[in-house]
Amino acid sequence: MDDLTHRSEVAERAARAGGDLALDRFRTDIPVETKDGKTDVVTQADRDAQSHVIEVIREEFPDDTIVGEEDGVEPSSTDHASGQSPRAEEALKEVPEEGPAWVIDPIDGTANYVRGIPIWATSVAAVIDGEPVAATNAMPALEDCYVADGEETRLNGEAISVSERGDPKTCMVSPTLWWDFEQRGEFAAAVRAIIERFGDMRRFGCAQGTLNMIADGGLDGAMSDVRPNPWDTVAGIHLVRKAGGRATDLEGERWRHDSEGLVVSNGTVHEAVLEAIRAVRR
User: Fold this and answer.
1) What's the rounded Cα separation, in Å, for the pair 199 and 43?
2) Fold of 3-160
3) What single DSSP character describes residue 8?
4) Threshold 0.85, pTM exceeds
């Protein structure tokens, strides 16, 4: 097995394992905490799922860098050689420019998760020298698993592709990511820019889930002028690209993990989505 195939298989195994753990606690009376604001919520399921994902990765790639949303997650198993639990692992918050790394979001869409809404994902991307090479977004509450290797994107084992819609009036576009309360004017402008240019609009509260839907053709585009976190985007961007779609920054340049803003589409209507987000900036 070559290295990239190995990484793809581990990404899928890790995402499924973390997603299954989160699913076991979904729609239970789990305590909810807040981080940086009243809508920025987290649960112990987030931390435990990230820990479980890391454990799966560490079994195969013990020295790789981990980039993840949650801080100081406790390992969920014991080091059997020593009989002691290994120390908590601090995940980085930025993707390194060199070397192998893994980008993890244990529950993308925690606000949905804690309300019992099934649109949330456990996301794992393998990255080398800053570029994703494999990704899995597991959505266990929907019984869906999106996987991209170096060749294609698959949904539950079947190859998928972005939509072929070219008329903006037939397209459905999402104002993805999250505008904070002090940015609600921009959020309102993004909604207006979409409804003035496209056939319909959706917002799902799960960035990776939104990118999944572009990859499988359900959505035709998504946009935000907010700088995204890598755990919210890197895996889904790889899924979209391997399904034939396009992802850029606000200037139309190829999107990277450190880009400002995010514009994603089926490729055919990309210029229309770019114009919509530029209208927000104006």
Assistant:
1) 37
2) Fructose-1,6-Bisphosphatase; Chain A, domain 1 (3.30.540)
3) H
4) yes
